[in-house]
Design a protein that fits this description.
Mean pLDDT: 85
Strand order of the largest sheet: 1-2
Structural class: alpha+beta
Low-confidence stretches: none
Distance between the termini: 36 Å
Radius of gyration: 15 Å
Number of domains: 1
Length: 98
């Protein structure tokens, strides 16, 4: 699947150029294939879903994660929150670790 043009539209000039140069096609099947855990211990590990709100692409996935009792966190902004708002991503990860 080719990179979507909207990925960089909310980024500043230098960041937009830096990310744009690094975009590459992404296989769609990663969203469709289920993970099969072979260990019973692995099935009991905590799970988390952190997403950004700029797209409704993951609405169904985060809904399923919430229903399954996962830690879920939504961050304002676009796809590359780790670049555009690293403090918010770090806070979400710290909250998850706590």
């Amino acid at each position: 699947m080719p990179p979507a043009s909207y990925v960089t539209e909310r980024m500043s000039g230098p960041l937009r150029a830096w990310v744009g140069e690094r975009l590459a096609p992404h296989p769609w099947r990663c969203f469709e294939e289920r993970v099969h855990l072979r260990s019973k211990d692995a099935a009991s590990l905590p799970r988390a879903f952190i997403r950004t709100t700029a797209s409704d692409l993951y609405d169904r996935l985060i809904k399923e994660a919430r229903q399954a009792g996962w830690y879920c966190r939504e961050l304002e902004g676009g796809h590359y929150a780790m670049l555009t708002q690293p403090q918010a991503v770090a806070a979400a990860l710290n909250e998850l670790a706590a």
